[in-house]
Specification:
By secondary structure, the protein is of the alpha+beta class. It has two helices and three strands.
């Protein structure tokens, strides 16, 4: 399994990142984005993401992607189920 290098966010994203898809109570910046990644990886340690589309226009980027993983930890109040889950996600930032 690949290592979870959340610090790569600092290398790949602009410092002024405004993430629209962070969890409630987290900052909408790269630190919040990294915390979301930690929450996901803690709950779904085998998670895999597949990018479907990237659309960029001026200062906005939208990414459509799928993820699959086995829920081995609590996630947003849902206890671990040991079931495989698939999610279709749309992320946008500006």
């Amino acid at each position: 399994m690949a290592a979870k290098n959340h610090e790569i966010v600092d290398e790949l994203c602009a410092p002024e990142l405004v993430a629209q898809d962070v969890l409630a109570g987290l900052p909408a910046n790269s630190e919040g984005f990294k915390k979301v990644a930690t929450v996901i990886h803690d709950a779904f340690p085998d998670v895999r993401f597949t990018r479907k589309d990237i659309i960029a226009q001026k200062d906005k980027v939208v990414i459509r992607w799928d993820s699959t993983g086995t829920q081995k930890g609590d996630f947003m109040g849902i206890p671990a189920t040991s079931k495989r889950r698939r999610m279709h996600l749309l992320s946008n930032s500006q």
